[in-house]
Amino acid sequence: MRRPVRGFSLIEVVITMAIIALLASIAAPLTETVVRRGKEQDLKRALYQVRDAIDAYKIAADAGHIEKSLSGSGYPPSLQELVDGVRDLRSVKGNRIYFLRRIPRDPFADSRLSALESWGLRSYTSPADDPRAGEDVFDVYSLARGTGLNGIPYREW
């Protein structure tokens, strides 16, 4: 009497590999979308943090808590000033007001750029459709080329 041979036939192995390949080809684009969505969430968060700090600086300048030149707009002269802080005019001891702990990085920017260099800067006198840097920082925008999952280019977020 012969014992039955145990194991898988070649056809069973080939069919199993085909099913695994099919599932992997379906999952690959999904993982790319998940990673991209995560970067977009990071971009939204970073833009909110920087813009919130710029607005807080402007409110403090308009309230007279920090020094503002007569011809100035009241917006910070650079993003770095939000991190370095400015002298609080209400404090006798010369305390400083800080608006950011650090400058967040644009997640879509080139990794060789510093966090400060990863953003495009728009001055108060610059038009919205043609943002340019100037004497102050009124707004920031992403320098990344491409369009978000929502169909809006990253530069317009």
Explain what the structure shows.
The protein has one domain (11-156). It is mainly α. The chain has helices spanning 10-62, 80-84; strands at residues 86-87, 96-97, 119-122, 139-142. Keywords: Methylation. InterPro entries: Bac_GSPG_pilin, N_methyl_site, Pilin-like. It holds the Pfam family N_methyl. It comes from Pseudomonas taeanensis MS-3.
- Residue-averaged pLDDT, rounded? 91
Secondary structure: helix percent: 25-40%
How much β-strand is present in the residues? 5-15%
Instruction: State the secondary-structure class.
Output: mainly alpha
**Main sheet: strand order:** 1-2
- How many β-strand runs? 4
SSE sequence, one letter per element = HHEEEE
Q: Largest beta sheet, briefly?
A: 2 strands, antiparallel
Flag low-confidence runs: none
Overall, the morphology is elongated
Q: Evaluate the radius of gyration.
A: 26 Å
How many domains, in number, for the residues? Answer: 1
Cα(first) to Cα(last) distance is 76 Å
Number of helices: 2
Organism: Pseudomonas taeanensis MS-3
Protein name: General secretion pathway protein GspG
GO cellular component, one term: type II protein secretion system complex
Keywords: Methylation
